[in-house]
Amino acid sequence: MAFLRDVDRALTTPVVLHCLGGFALVCCYGLPRATNDIDYIATEVAGDDELIALAGRGSELSQRHQVFFQRVGIALFPEGYARRLVTVDAPTLMRLRLKVLEAHDIVLSKLDRFSGADSDDIKFLATTVPLDLDVLKTRYDEELRPYAAVGPERLDLTFELCLAMIREVQRAG
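Below the sequence we write its predicted structure tokens.
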């Protein structure tokens, strides 16, 4: 992707991002749609300010490529996600390193908003990745629910709906 190459060339320090959302699905899981933002929740090394100045919304690079980096301020994701990150294979990038949430963690990160697009993304993962419902349940109970800012009852209902949707997709094969 030309945008990532141009950002990489412009950076003066290394940046390692933990990405989620549509970019993660497109980049690592093969979701067949474009995304105009690259959402991330954390950086492993300094460089976040430089990255946003170079390639955040409204920057010259974002206007040229119609894509931008965006740090997600409020997001729901499993507490232990970092040890399961998937590294994006991009050998031509020297300073910019991208890691994305593992598929089960992506599903859990979508529970708070659970929009139509989020539901579609979860269905896509259920058809392309062997999602393990026991893994989802364990991570939900141990790494997500205890840290959720929204009411746990609402989140529990959404999670049960999500599990039912995944079961249906998996049964349909």
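The mean pLDDT is 93.
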